[in-house]
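Reading group handout, session on sequence-to-structure problems. Before we discuss, look at one worked example. The prompt was deliberately terse, the way you'd type it at a terminal:

> structure Phosphoesterase

The input record follows.
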Amino acid sequence: MRLLLISDTHLPKRARALPEQVLAEVDRADVVLHAGDWVDVATLDLLERRSRRLIGVYGNNDGPRLRARLPEIARAELGGLRFAVVHETGDAKGREARCARRFPDTDVLVFGHSHIPWDSVAPGGLRLLNPGSPTDRRRQPHHTYLTVTIRDALLTEVLLHCLPARTPGT
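And the output record:
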C-alpha cells in the first residue's frame, strides 16, 4: 500500500495550486492523508475527486466550510496499521511522550502545523510523521511531502521528498 502524506497547503495564499509532482503522487497513492491547513475548499474538492481514498483533518487556519466537512482527528486502519491524523501536536519538546499518551491505540500519527518535516518514534513504538509543506516552506530549505509504503503491516519505506524551487506565486 502506498500513502501520500501532505499538510499545510495554505492554498491559494502560499501558492496558486498544488505542485504537479504532488498531484502525480496523488494519482499513484492508494490513500492520501492531509494533516490540515488546507485554507481553501477547492483543494479539498480536488483531492476528493482525484484520490482513491482521502483522509483529512482541519487545521487552525481552516474556516467553517472546511471544519464542517473535516474532523479534528481522523483515524483509519491502513495496511494493518492504526493511523491517526491531527493538525497540531504542540511543542517539539516532549512531543513523543505527549503523543504516545494522547494516542495510545495508534501505530502511526500524522501531523502538521509546524511546516517542519518530522520522523520519530515515541516510547512504546508510536511513529510520528510530519510531511512539512509542499507549498509553504517557511524557514525550511525545501517544500516537502512524504510517501510511505506499507507491507505486511509494517512501514517498509518512509521517504521525504523535496520539491524543486519554484518561482514566487506559483
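Points for discussion. First: The first strand starts at residue 2 and ends at 6. Second: The mean pLDDT is 95.
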